[in-house]
Amino acid sequence: MADTGGHRLELPVGQPNEAQNDELGLGRLIDVFRRRIWVFAVTAGVVFLLVAAATLSATRLYTATAQVQIDMRERRVLGDVESVMSGMSGDTSAVETETQILQSRTLAGRVVDQLKLYADPAFAPPEKPGLAQQIAGVFGAAPKLTPAEAAAARTRAREAAITSLLRSTRITRVGLTYIIDIGVTLPEAEKAAEIANTYAELYLTQQLETKYDTIARANEWLSKRLDDLRAEVQTKEREVEMYRTQSGLLSAEGSTLTEQSIAQLNLELVQSRAALAERTARLRGVENAVAAGGSPESAAEALSSPVIAQLRERQADLARERAELSTKLGPKHPDMQRIAKEQADLEQQIQNQVRLIVENLRNEVSIARQRVASIEESLAGQRTNLSANNLGAVKLGELEREAEASRTLYEAFLNRFKQIAEQSGIEQPDARIQSRASTPLAPSSPNTQLNLAIGLVLGLALGAVAVFLIELLERGLRTSEDVTRRIGVPYLGAVPYLDKSDRMVDGEFVSAENYVLKRPVSAFGEALRSIRAGVFFANPDRRVKVVAITSSVPDEGKTTTSLGLARISALAGSRTVLVDCDLRRRSATHALGIEVEKGLTEVLFKTATLQDVIRKDPGSGADVVPLAQAEFTPRDLFGSDAMRQLIDQLRAKYDVIILDTAPVLPLADTRVLAALADTVLLVARWGRTPAALVKEAVEQLRSHNARVGGVVLEAVETNMIARLLYDKSDYYSELYQTYYIR
Predict the structure, then answer these.
(1) Do 314 and 419 have their domain in common?
(2) Pairing assessment for the beta strands 431-435 and 62-70 based on DSSP bridges
(3) Could you tell me if residue 303 is inside a domain?
(4) pLDDT tens, residue by residue, 135-152
(5) Where are the alpha helices (DSSP H) in 36-104?
(6) Which of the listed residues 371, 399, 423 is the one where a domain comes to its end?
(7) Is cis: bond before 446, omega within 30 of 0?
(8) Which of 16, 299, 385, 697 is the 20 to 30 Å CA partner of 239?
(9) Which residues form the domain of 337?
(10) Are 310 and 302 a contacting pair, CB within 8 Å?
(11) Together in a domain, 276 and 385
């Protein structure tokens, strides 16, 4: 538990809980909003007021709406014949196309011309006079425009009126229906209704004019085309008769004899090709048997030969005879040799017979192939004759078809021309006015309720965005949660900020260091007592005597905290000594107004004793070891044995030893000295010192084995800390302000 200017801050003294570090739940969001409630409220209020002001000051606009229904029923000009200009199809693209036509500049221009809107200042504001006209006006001469300039001015006025009309007109399709809304929004209700109705009427008129023009162009084109087709039909029919007479053809048929001859030859060709295929297959059977490693006589052709069959029977008889004799006679016996010779002769005869069969098969294949070629040659000749005979008939048929096509086309065009002429003048538009626009009684814009609702929602949203942006951009430390979550060390307390009015004590302006002496029981004093309790009495198992007080960068208020803590400890009855260890600034020495010739440096250099340099703080009774000079020395004073001996000497004599050191980041002396202290207090300016610098200072101190006891926030604005810690006891600080004496 720590005090902040009299505000009790419930904070952990040990290391922060990891679960708390990562907490991003609803409670955290509520913390952020409570912390930035005024930012949220002001942003939301300003946005809402701006929207409300814009809504209330906006011009009242009236919207008049006329409805046009697209008629999907087709009205064909030529009945069953394809129409010159059919009605629209019922698909969505047709309705969307008509919607785009209604939004075209052409139709808007017709409305402008119909209602003379180019002369209405609301649609076509007067042009500013040119330089020549301005000069003429200065001399009282009436500006004169040439005919070309006047025509150009009228064109510009008309185009400006069209543009203004299109901006004021909204053409929309009603859902998936065939109805299109024509809405015109203007400050004048009557004019809006008039323009909407004129839009609808001119749209229907434009459809009729389009149909009239299309049918007129179709009639004109058909008339010219009929004259050309009539002459073409006559020419084609004349060519047919002349060619029939010249070629002597009475019909388109060819010679019957030639056709029969071709049919007979086709039949013979099929049979010959079948015979060729059969003989080729037999020959390939013998050749395949030989190619497969077998003997030619094993082929089907050889096996079916009666001669080969007789020779095989004779071979079998000789084989039996030889087998019978071989049991009685030797291989050199004349009978055995005779039988062997006869077997060889039989084998030779069989081979000769097989070769003869193969040769006969080849001859049969060759003859069959020649027959097929001969029939094919005869068939080709007959086909040539038939082609020559039919050539005249083909040409005649072509001429007759051309003549028939021209005649058919001529009749179709003639029928269409007659039908268009009969139905001309009964065209109807493909749409009709569903409802005419009436004069609106209430404005359509601005929608006050909707705009205010949008303004409120937008204000709340932008307020939330502003809160989170400020929270994300917040670099300093403001709450105990910031210290424990972002730095990772305990939070020891906060020293309130003292403004000029606070420092006026009995009509005298006092410094922050002396305020604790003038008002020891004020919120400022209670905050220092709370820090003292958190440092010296939080852990009864470890006695803390030597406290090094430092900061990450200069001007953080560490000297004010050091002096205040030393004086509070002395007033509480503890034997206290404050050692000024800031060799370059001598901040504590200057704050106490002490001027000495010998101080801490001389003690460490052994040119003076501790008793020679100690001074007494008259207000609190605390002892002070000042610095006599502020200059750089290359010697490592704080890492020397002399500094360790001095601290041991002070431990034996005092209950509380406070070392007011230099900042950690710019100087290395403090990191060495901090390792000699029982604990280190890191002072950070509330809301100003970036958390990254404080964290870096903590890491550097720990890298030198210094025990960082926690962080003290200096110059805290107590009126804001109550809002930042709404869920802590400080939120109710107004209830116990009477306990403090200011």
Answers:
(1) yes
(2) antiparallel
(3) yes
(4) 555 555 556 667 888 888
(5) 37-57, 92-102
(6) 423
(7) yes
(8) 385
(9) 256-423
(10) no
(11) yes
Please check whether residue 78 is in contact with residue 209, taking contact to mean a CB–CB distance below 8 angstroms: no
Six token digits for residue 183: 């809405």
Long-range contact pairs involving 345-349 (C-beta distance under 8 Å, separation at least 24): 346/311, 346/314, 346/315, 346/318, 347/315, 349/311
Q: What is the pLDDT of residues 287-308, one digit of tens each?
A: 776 666 555 555 555 556 677 7
Q: Is residue 719 part of a domain?
A: yes
Tens digit of pLDDT for each residue in 376-421?
778 777 667 666 556 666 776 777 788 888 888 878 877 877 776 6
Choose among 262, 281, 261: nearest CA to 368. 281
Residue among 717, 723, 734 at smallest CA distance from 38: 723
Task: Read off the DSSP letter of residue 61.
Answer: B
d(CA 80, CA 416): 10
For the chain, give the percent of residues with pLDDT over 70.
79
Judge residue 288's burial from the number of C-beta atoms within 10 Å of its C-beta, 0-12 exposed, 13-18 middle, 19 or more buried.
Answer: exposed
Note whether 178 and 95 are within 8 A (CB): yes
Alpha helices for 330-488 (secondary structure H): 334-423, 448-473, 480-482
Residue 314 forms part of a structural domain? yes
**Residue 75 and residue 88: Cα distance in Å, rounded?**
9
What does the DSSP assignment read for 680-739? EEEEEETTTS-HHHHHHHHHHHHHTT--EEEEEEEEE-HHHHHHHTTTSGGGGGGGGGGG
How many CA atoms, within 13 angstroms, populate the side-chain half-sphere of residue 57? 6
**CATH number for the domain including 676?**
3.40.50.300
Residue 664 counted as domain residue? yes
What residues form DSSP beta bridges with 616?
623
| Overall domain count for the chain | 2
